[in-house]
Write a structure and sequence with these properties.
The protein folds into two domains: 237 residues, Urate Oxidase, CATH 3.10.270.10; 36 residues, no CATH class. It is α+β, with helices and mostly antiparallel strands and 306 residues long. The longest helix has 20 residues. Strand 7 and strand 8 form a beta hairpin. It catalyses: GTP + H2O = 7,8-dihydroneopterin 3'-triphosphate + formate + H(+). GO terms for molecular function: GTP cyclohydrolase I activity. Pathway: Cofactor biosynthesis; 7,8-dihydroneopterin triphosphate biosynthesis; 7,8-dihydroneopterin triphosphate from GTP: step 1/1. InterPro entries: GTP_cyclohydrolase_FolE2, GTP_cyclohydrolase_FolE2/MptA.
Length: 306
C-alpha cells in the first residue's frame, strides 16, 4: 500500500501556463465575520484580496487570508493599525506572489440615540464601508458612512408662507378676525383655515466617504464622524418620539430649510478642518416628495486642494 505524507498541491505542479498575465486582485468576498466597532459587535461582510503579480503563478493561498481574518473577531476595538498589520501579514504570506493587499468591510453600526426633548431613546443603524489597502508599504484607508436626515424645501416653504399670508389677509377683509384683537388672531392661527399650506419635506441621505489619516492610533472614529455630520445637518431622522419630540423636530426642520446644495455645503464646512481625515467625497440625495425623481449634490476635497 502506498501512503502519502503530504496532500497534493496543484499550484506547485509545473504544467505550462498558456496565458501568463499579472492580476490586480485575487481573493474572497462576502466573508461573514463579527467585528467590534466602537466597542459594539457588528456582523460584517469582509472582502480580502492580494495582487497576483507573478504572471505565471496559478493562484494564491486563500486559506492563509481567511485564517488571518478570523483573528480580527477577537479584537475588542478595531483600529487602523490592526488592519494594517493584517495586510502586512497577507503580503508576508505571499512574498513571492503579491505586492498589494486590500480589505473591504461592510456592515451596520447600531447606535442608541436620545429623543430631542423627552426621556425616550431608540436604536438607529448606520451602514458603513471601510476599505484599506497596502501597496509597497503605503497604507491608506477610506471610510464610508450613510446618514439619513430630513430636508425641507426652502422654495416650498416660501410658497406656503405666501398662501398663509393671503389667508390671513382674507380673514381680516372678511372680518373673521379683528387686527386689533390678538386673542382672535391667536385662536385663528390654530385652525386649518390659517395654516392652509405646508412645505414639503423628504427623507434624505448623506453618503459620506472619508480618507482617514494613517496616523490615527485610536479606535476608528465612527461615532465622532456621525455626530459631527448630524450636528451640521441639524435634522437627523429620529427613533422613539413623543408629541413633544415631534414638535421639536418640526421646529428643527423649519429653522433648517435646505436644498441639496445647502446640505452639501454644511457638510463641507463641517469637515474641511477635521483632524482625523485627509480628504472626503460627499454625496447628498434628497428623495423628492414633490417630484418622482431625486435631487442630488456631490463634492470632494483633499488637503492638497487647498
Amino acid at each position: 500500500m502506498i501512503t502519502r505524507s503530504t496532500l497534493p498541491d496543484i499550484s506547485l505542479l509545473s504544467s505550462a501556463n498558456s496565458h501568463p498575465y499579472p492580476l490586480d486582485w485575487v481573493g474572497m468576498e462576502n466573508i461573514s465575520l463579527p467585528l467590534y466597532i466602537e466597542n459594539t459587535l457588528c456582523l460584517c461582510k469582509v472582502n480580502a484580496y492580494v495582487s497576483l503579480d507573478d504572471p505565471y503563478a496559478k493562484g494564491i493561498h486563500m486559506s492563509r487570508l481567511y485564517t488571518r481574518l478570523l483573528e480580527l473577531s477577537s479584537i475588542q476595538n478595531l483600529t487602523l493599525l490592526v488592519i494594517e498589520t493584517v495586510l502586512k501579514d497577507f503580503l508576508l504570506s505571499h512574498q513571492s506572489l503579491s505586492k498589494h493587499a486590500k480589505i473591504d468591510l461592510y456592515g451596520e453600526l447600531p447606535l442608541e440615540q436620545p429623543a430631542l426633548i423627552s426621556q425616550l431613546s431608540g436604536w438607529k443603524s448606520y451602514p458603513f464601508h471601510l476599505s484599506c489597502q497596502l501597496h509597497q508599504q503605503q497604507f491608506k484607508a477610506t471610510l464610508g458612512i450613510d446618514i439619513a436626515y430630513s430636508s425641507t424645501c426652502p422654495c416650498s416653504a416660501a410658497l406656503a408662507r405666501d398662501l398663509i399670508q393671503k389667508s390671513f389677509q382674507d380673514a381680516i377683509l372678511s372680518e373673521k378676525i379683528q387686527p386689533n384683537r390678538p386673542d382672535q388672531i391667536f385662536t385663528w392661527l390654530g385652525t386649518t383655515n390659517a395654516i392652509v399650506a405646508t412645505p414639503h419635506s423628504q427623507r434624505s441621505l448623506a453618503q459620506l466617504n472619508f480618507d482617514l489619516s494613517p496616523a490615527i492610533q485610536k479606535p476608528l472614529p465612527f461615532i465622532q464622524l456621525i455626530h459631527h455630520a448630524e450636528k451640521a445637518l441639524a435634522t437627523p431622522v429620529q427613533t422613539a418620539v413623543k408629541r413633544v419630540d415631534e414638535q421639536a423636530f418640526a421646529l428643527a426642520n423649519g429653522q433648517n430649510l435646505m436644498f441639496c446644495e445647502d446640505a452639501l455645503r454644511r457638510l463641507y464646512h463641517a469637515f474641511i478642518n477635521y483632524s482625523d481625515i485627509t480628504g472626503f467625497n460627499f454625496k447628498v440625495i434628497h428623495a423628492e416628495s414633490l417630484h418622482a425623481h431625486d435631487a442630488v449634490a456631490q463634492g470632494k476635497w483633499t488637503k492638497s486642494s487647498l
